[in-house]
Amino acid sequence: MDIKIRIEDFSLHYSDGKESLRHITLDIYANQINVLFGPSGGGKSSLLRALNRLNDLTDVAVQEGRILLDGEDIAAPGYDVIRLRRRVGIVFARPVPLPMSIYRNVTYGLELAGIKDRAQWDAAVERSLKQAALWEEVSDRLDESGYALSGGQQQRLCLARALALQPEVVLLDEPTSGLDPISTSKIERTLQELKSEYTFVAVPHSVQQAARIADWATFFLQGELIEHGDGKTIFTTPQNSQTNEYITGRFG
Amino acid sequence: MKRQPVSLSEFLIERAIQVFGISAIVLVALIFFFLIREGVPAFFEVPLSSLFGARWYPIEDYFGLWPLILGSLIITLGAAILSLPLGLATAIFIAEIAPTWVRDILKPFVEVLAGIPSVVIGFIGMLVFAPALRVALNLPTGLTAFSGILLLAWMALPTIVSVAEDVLDSVPTTYRDAGLALGMTRWQVIWRIVLPAGRSGVLTALMLGVGRAIGETMTVMMVTGNAPRLPLTPADLFMPARTMTATIAAEMGEVAQGSPHYHVLFAVGLTLFVITFVVNMAAAMVVFRQVKRGERMLS
Amino acid sequence: MLSRQTSQRIAFIVISLSALIVVAPILFIVGYIVVQGVGAISWEFLTGFPYNGMKSGGVWPAIVGTLWLTLGTAVVAVPVGVGAAIYLSEYAGDNQLTRAIRIAIINLAGIPSVVYGLFGLGLFVIFLNFGTSILAGSLTLGIMTLPVIISTAEEALRAVPQSFRLVSVSLGGTRWETIRRVVLPQALPGIITGIILGLERAAGETAPILFTVAAFFLPRLPHSIFDQTMALPYHLFVISTQVPGMPVRIQYGTALVLMFFVLSMNVLATLIRRHYRRQRVW
Questions:
Q1: For residues C79 and B206, which has the higher predicted lDDT (pLDDT)?
Q2: Which residues in chain B are closer than 8 Å to C143, comparing Cβ atoms?
């Protein structure tokens, strides 16, 4: 199993003292669905956002340790974050189409990357919308606003938008939290189909979803990594009693 | 995001934005500086006994500021005293009592009032309002301090109404619901819960209204008769008066640049600047403190 | 002791009457000026020069002057104001500098218009030697208009959801690219509304232009920004206080033109705001 991202003794504290992470060491495997789960406030989202430096936008007081993407420390000062964010895309919990057409939503990242070729745009739109299993539903109305779509379609549009840049890693922050079961299963199926091309790091919105999609799973509790292992083991025979209590529904 | 922008143009734009950002500070300092530069010489060129005398008659070198300061003071205070309850009542009407469709008509109206140029109000005040007041009160002239007070009170309303309305809106609905659940009438809720909860904001509204009234120029110049007399008794309210703003506006055009009169007018402007600065700072402090308290309550 | 219902009824009646006292005179003033002034309005009045000691003729040079000044004010105030708003909304941290900027803006907003006139006289007319000119007047009016534009533009920028910024940055956008491509276009209607409201105020102001630009009577149009000009508000002031025997009809006509000019900007701003608020997806 290839290691895509290696997190080494990583700690993070916000200046408002809210969520924090303490001494996390963890490997993210390439072409797998890596799941981070646990009760809210455990630091999963913070870790996720550290992986493409979106935390830079919030008030981080202290950040220590290293995060190695293909061996390069992305947490180091002076690292080119713009390039990083093109390599590591993210889909957020709530679908947030940008206030523009479906087409321009998908090409937005390409425009920022300086790609101006219309043919390239067309190709990227078709490819990524197909990957996100949305192409059939929207191919004849690409000029409509992203907000004309249903919630589930909007979220798949957001996935397509992240995929358009052909990132190596895709971060998923509770990507189906507001969606109906049909849309949720569509997205879960999409992830399975795409993992041969991408590395996924996902924070699912429920233990059930975690168990369904995880190739690898990591349990977080109050900013600490409690247990890490392959999905099957974690969700059937966890070693740690706290993990066991959480997945059997005794807390969280 | 602590990161160097990628391109030169982006770098330049972000620098420009930063410069624009601090422009307000630079401008306030510049204004202060030029008022001092042109105004302070007055204190050396004109004897203090003249400046603090009771007579403003520049042609004969009487530069007594008291009539102007007191003129501004009574007109501003008078306007504020009338304006606050009216503005507050209107804000309560708009925010708490009026049905939605009335509110939708009223709010643009108040904005229209804010938009009418003061010279137009002064014009109507001179041609219609003052003569009517003269007849109604049987005065020798309608161009009096009182006319100025009434018009200014009315002109300060948009400021007071909009600030007070924001304040009333910001009182949480749960407060209101709690009051109603206890069997209070709507009026009791407004009077005993909403107004006390928003009182510091109402204070801000008052101060901003005062700031607006003391700086008003054209209307007072046109309707107060412009006689620089010392207003000392209540009867003086119904006599002509002269404000600081009107004095500057009326006389600056005719003075020789660099003359004592010129410098005194700048000194009057400096005084106005300082007064509005203090009033607005006080208002700002109330707002800032309120924000802090709000944050404490949340965390 | 009154019953609770009775006291509520009395209070509501008093409050409603107060609101009426506030609103009725607005209707009266606008209506009265229209009724009195509409008779003066003619093609000749709108496009002609005043003559016969301003007792005859039109207000054309004053209209042109006010247009010049409004445009000049926009040129000065829009870039600086919108830039400052972008700074406050998108760049400024929670620190002493930001607080100082906010206090400065509150104070700028509170400075009396006639004091702006003094400042313009001291800095632009005399110190920088621009003379009494459209340039000096526009700069003065522009600075006076800044606080209105800054605060409305900042409000419009802040109303744009934070999630848009996060998405744009996550797709490899820099801060400025995010502002230019997502935040500004979304805030634009609100910013334009604020600009129009600011310019409306500037167009109606008299005191700041008294000593910086306004000409009592100038029987020609300005040729450049270094010329003096007549302007509608000052013209109304002049013909209603400085010219004895002025026909009332012309005074009301001038007031009507000025009020129409200013209030149509107000209406325009309201319409833009309504239109885009309805269209907005977020």
A1: C79
A2: 27
